[in-house]
Write a structure and sequence with these properties.
The chain has 156 residues and is mostly helical. Helices cover 76% and strands 0% of the residues. The protein contains 8 helices and no strands. Helix 2 packs antiparallel against helix 3. The two termini are 15 Å apart.
Length: 156
C-alpha cells in the first residue's frame, strides 16, 4: 500500500472507529449486563461478521448484492426479521434485571458469538458501507483490486 493510499485511509478509518455504531453499543451492553467474557465473545462475533463483508467486497459479491434489487431486498428483509426477533426477545424478558450470580447463565459464549456474527453479517448498512468506503482508497495502478480491497477491509 502506497503512502498516498495509506494515510488518507488511516485518517478515515480512525474517524470511523471513533464514532461507535450500533454493534459497538450492543457489545458494550452485553459486556455490562452479562460480563466481560460474554461481551468479548459477542464482540468477536461482530468482528468476524465485518470481516465477512471484507471478503464479500474483495470478491465483488457485495457489489452484485447491492446491484440486485432482489438480493439486496432479501438481505434487508433478513436483517429486519433479525431485529424483530431481537425486539421480541427483549420484550419477553420484560426488562428484568438478573443478579450478578445469574448473569453468566442463559446464552453460551458460542451462542453470543453467533449472535454477534449474524448481527453484522446480515446488516445491509454494513454492505453499503464497505461498498462506498473501501473503493475510495483502491488505486487501479497498484495491482489487483480485490487484493487491495481485502487489505483495506482488514484495516477497518
Amino acid at each position: 500500500m502506497s503512502p498516498d493510499q495509506f494515510f488518507p485511509f488511516l485518517i478515515a478509518a480512525v474517524l470511523v472507529t471513533l464514532s461507535p455504531g450500533p454493534d459497538n453499543l450492543m457489545v458494550l451492553g452485553v459486556g455490562i449486563s452479562r460480563g466481560r467474557a460474554q461481551g468479548v465473545s459477542f464482540g468477536l462475533g461482530c468482528a468476524l461478521g465485518c470481516l465477512s463483508h471484507t471478503l464479500l467486497a474483495a470478491l465483488g459479491i457485495s457489489a452484485l448484492i447491492a446491484a440486485s434489487p432482489l438480493a439486496f431486498g432479501a438481505l434487508k428483509i433478513g436483517g429486519g426479521l433479525y431485529l424483530v426477533w431481537l425486539g421480541i426477545q427483549a420484550w419477553r424478558s420484560q426488562g428484568q434485571i438478573r443478579p450478578v450470580a445469574e448473569q453468566g447463565r442463559g446464552e453460551t459464549l458460542t451462542q453470543l458469538f453467533a449472535k454477534g456474527l449474524i448481527a453484522n453479517a446480515i446488516n445491509p448498512k454494513v454492505v453499503l458501507f464497505f461498498l462506498s468506503f473501501l473503493p475510495q482508497f483502491v488505486l487501479t495502478a497498484r495491482g489487483p483490486l480485490g487484493w487491495q480491497t481485502a487489505q483495506l477491509g482488514l484495516g477497518v
